[in-house]
């Protein structure tokens, strides 16, 4: 029996915590042996969850790079602009890398990460987790089986969700392009990755795109509105009220996302959330933030062979991240509404529904893209656990391409 893969978590926030949950479910396959995060509460919380020894808990990832290698892999879940340096440094130490998306915020940084991983022979997995979603994988299987013939057009839509956008892209960490990245990269690199995935071997040769920031601007602030929701006399008439998004949820016992993000230094409860809304960024009026990222954007693409694709990202939706897709082929059409897949056959004019197995253990089953998160970590741990020559990625959604060095860096 193989020993558990030993991993260090760099960035103990929401994503680092989520990926680490795999170790709680499968301690025989994954063990968290180190943590690096500048926030005391975040690293202590993860340390207690996984019984990490004090000597392996750090407030700076540089401490890991300066030590002798003491694990097999690292989960790098730092903010978007802080991906390249730890990825490059820890790859040079020989750690296999699970890197939160986006890979980096510049082409130069992406190239340096990839080249370093190729040179050092370590596995690099970028967390485009939706490729691991069972529905997405089923769509790919249907395309590759010829169920709809030659793919002619792909139409894909991401409804971000009205309060999700306010939380993450108006008040939150991804609100400002200079501090993080533009919204399409931060939120929808998942989706552009999927379109490229479904296009197969055809390369994208033309792109056009435009978008804008709507509504969340100072000129749209209602008369009489305060700078903070807790002080606002018109808060009850605002859909983006921090009271509604955070306090109402915690009063009902909900302490997961987005409430869990609000309290940086404590477990969420009514008192801690109230204090955070009084003093922190998540209590600000959405019309008085320093946000500048697009709230809606469209992308049109042309691929080799005449395949076209269109993608839309919109903030102002009821549904949250429940992607919708239609793919038109020469023999039929695939549609996916976030709940089920249908294939319509032009010859028989029969529509067939396809189901998938959505069962995953533990906290991964509790919404969001947790199911895909589980399968992503499962694949990464499997890849690290055995030598690459033995591991067969054929059935994995992230296919090996090019020469062996390139494929090893692109698992």
The chain-level structural class is alpha/beta
Spans of 5+ residues with little confidence (pLDDT < 50)?
Answer: 391-411
Radius of gyration (Å): 22 Å
- What's the overall average pLDDT, rounded? 92
In DSSP terms, counting alpha (H) and pi (I) runs of 4 or more, how many helices? 13
Oligomer: single chain
**SSE order:** EHEHEHEHEHEHEHHEHHHEEEEEEHH
CATH architecture of the domain at 5-128 and 361-390: 3-Layer(aba) Sandwich
Question: Strand order within the widest sheet?
Answer: 8-9-10-7-11-12-13-14
Percent helix: 25-40%
Task: Give the N-terminus to C-terminus distance in angstroms.
Answer: 23 Å
As a percent range, the share of strand residues is 15-25%
Q: Which CATH class of the domain at 5-128 and 361-390? A: Alpha Beta
Largest sheet: 8 strands, mixed
The CATH superfamily name of the domain at 5-128 and 361-390 is NAD(P)-binding Rossmann-like Domain
CATH fold node name of the domain at 5-128 and 361-390: Rossmann fold
Number of DSSP-assigned strands = 14
**Coarse morphology:** globular
Domain Gfo/Idh/MocA-like oxidoreductase N-terminal: 6-127
GO molecular function: nucleotide binding
Organism: Ictalurus punctatus (Channel catfish)
Domain Gfo/Idh/MocA-like oxidoreductase C-terminal: 140-361
């Amino acid at each position: 029996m193989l020993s558990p893969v030993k991993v260090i978590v760099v960035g103990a926030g929401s994503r680092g915590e989520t990926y680490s949950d795999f170790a709680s479910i499968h301690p025989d396959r994954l063990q968290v042996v180190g943590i690096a995060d500048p926030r005391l509460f975040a690293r202590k919380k993860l340390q207690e969850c996984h019984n990490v020894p004090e000597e392996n808990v750090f407030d700076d990832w540089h401490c890991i790079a300066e030590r002798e290698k003491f694990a097999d892999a690292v989960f790098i879940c730092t903010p978007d602009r802080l991906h390249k340096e730890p990825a490059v440094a820890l790859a040079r130490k020989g750690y296999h890398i699970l890197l939160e998306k986006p890979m980096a915020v510049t082409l130069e940084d992406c190239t340096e990460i990839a080249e370093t991983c190729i040179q050092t022979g370590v596995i690099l997995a970028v967390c485009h987790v939706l490729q691991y979603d069972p529905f997405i994988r089923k769509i790919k299987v249907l395309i590759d089986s010829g169920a709809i013939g030659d793919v002619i057009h792909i139409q894909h839509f991401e409804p971000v969700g009205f309060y999700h956008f306010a939380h993450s892209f108006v008040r939150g960490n991804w609100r400002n392009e200079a501090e993080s990245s533009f919204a399409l990269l931060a939120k929808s690199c998942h989706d552009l990755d999927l379109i490229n995935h479904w296009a197969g071997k055809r390369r994208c040769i033309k792109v056009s795109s435009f978008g804008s920031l709507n509504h969340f601007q100072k000129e749209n602030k209602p008369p009489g509105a305060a700078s903070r929701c807790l002080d606002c006399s018109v808060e009850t008439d605002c859909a983006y009220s921090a009271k509604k998004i955070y306090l109402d949820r915690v009063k009902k016992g909900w302490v997961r996302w987005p409430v869990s993000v609000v309290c940086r230094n404590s477990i969420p409860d009514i008192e801690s959330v109230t204090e955070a809304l009084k003093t922190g960024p998540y209590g600000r009026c959405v019309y008085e933030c320093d946000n500048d990222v697009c709230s809606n954007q469209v992308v049109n693409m042309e691929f080799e062979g005449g395949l076209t694709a269109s993608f839309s990202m919109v903030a102002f939706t009821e549904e949250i991240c429940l992607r919708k897709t239609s793919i038109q082929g020469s023999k039929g059409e695939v549609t996916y509404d976030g709940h089920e897949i249908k294939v319509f056959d032009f010859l028989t004019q029969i529509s067939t529904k396809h189901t998938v197995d959505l069962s995953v253990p533990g906290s991964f089953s509790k919404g969001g893209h947790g199911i895909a998160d589980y399968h992503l970590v499962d694949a990464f741990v499997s890849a690290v656990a055995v030598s690459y020559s033995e591991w067969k990625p054929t059935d994995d959604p992230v296919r090996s391409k090019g020469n062996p060095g390139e494929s090893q860096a692109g698992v």
